[in-house]
Specification:
- The chain is α+β, with helices and mostly antiparallel strands.
- The chain folds into 2 domains: about 90 residues; about 80 residues, Alpha-Beta Plaits.
- The chain is about 55% helix and about 15% strand.
- Strands 2-3-1-4 form a 4-stranded antiparallel beta sheet, with no helix packed on it.
- It holds the Pfam family DUF2179.
- It comes from Alkalitalea saponilacus.
Amino acid sequence: MEFYDTFWFTWVIIPFLIFIARVSDVTIGTLRIVFISKGYKILAPILGFFEVFIWLLAMGKIFQNLDNWMYYVAYSAGFAVGNYIGLIIEEKLALGFMNLRIITHEQGDALIKRLANEGFGITSSEAQGTRSRVNIIYCVIKRSDYKLVADIIQEYNPNAFYTLEDIRFANMGVFPVRSMMRGNGNFPWRKGK
């Protein structure tokens, strides 16, 4: 009996390899979609090549053994885990920019001053809310700076309401020097808007 015909190979090793392949291709696919949404026109197709190549390897093995239900379980589990890992990696990369809109019922001068002192560009205006006058503070930030900005808001105005929106492209903003030293959020091979 050859090793390829053993229980361990058929029911453990091959399903494990299918699982790993599926985790890999779905993780790459999740990152590819993120890079497409951020406008990385060269990196996304490169990732797409590896995503499909790995997928074909996994599917080829499944089609050779359509009667082995363990392959289907490994394939499905790999898909689920790959999505999760891809999102975790994307969160850690924190690519791109976010539009931060802060609405305060209190005067926002101290918060504005602190954000400006940290190097963030700020635009603010007074407005009428449902119940009272409010200050609206706009700030475009790098996603990697979100934690710092959230901590500042919590320190200076913990009751402030704020929202975040992803921005595909930002041009000519005011950003902290430390952010620019880490890079401008764009890979050198990103072209266009």
